[in-house]
Amino acid sequence: MTQTDYVLAAYLVMAIGIGGGLLWAYLSMRAAER
Amino acid sequence: MHRYANPKRFLAIARPATGLTLLAGALLVGIGLSWGLIFAPADYLQGESVRMLYVHVPMAWLALGGYLGLGIAGITALVWKHPLAEVALAALAPVGALYAALCLITGSIWGRPTWGTWWVWDGRLTSMLVLFFLYIGVIALIRAHDDVRTGARMAAVLAIVGLINLPIIKFSVEWWNTLHQPASITLSGSSIDGAMLWPLLTSALGFLFLMAAMVLMRMRALIAERLRIARSVRLATA
Lengths: 34, 238
Fold this sequence. Notes:
The structure holds two protein chains of two kinds. Chain A is mainly α. Chain A has one helix at 3-33. Chain A is built from one helix and no strands. The radius of gyration of chain A is 15 Å and the shape is rod-shaped. In chain B, helix 3 crosses helix 5 (148-161) and helix 4 runs antiparallel to helix 6. The longest helix of chain B has 44 residues, at 194-237. Chain B starts with 6 loop residues before the first helix and ends with a helix.
């Protein structure tokens, strides 16, 4: 693996984590406020 | 401050603030990360892998800052017994746990090309893992009791006790031998060049706004759930 591969892996993990967190927070808010 | 601790007043501010923080966070993270990935220079020693700085360091700062917020919410919930502080505690815990987990995973990915290992049981990495477990413990305690208020008060005690871990994490790189580097940014200045510092600060501010957006959305969800429970109890006893 090159250094760039590690960088991309770290950014991918971050994107999935933050994106998933935002989606969960939004969906739970929408379901609760309905 | 007490004026805004009323759930109705809080919701009047939280509703427009959710969209604004989300928008500001997405914009700043977009700018900060493209700046760090494309325009910032590679490091003379670490090469391209230094670009992990722009995701790993904000996650670490905000996981620590989030726990400080958890401790303050815990103290407010126990001393002033304010329901909104309990809601803030319950909303912040999973978001802080997410940031701590992302800090650990991105740090591990950075460690492999830089140190030659994914993990070492040294002071900094272990104390950061303990912080993640503290977050998980707070979440578990919140859910450990049928009565949400009792669960939140038990969790508040752990949140306050866990504050002792924050200075341990901060000073772990000075107290013990470690592969992890000491702090580059302190209150008295930074040893990082502006070409790397500004994209770092931009993405950190963006991730802070995204954290705020997640906490606001979770607080709104928890307040709505509590209102529904209170309404059904009122109907059942009428």
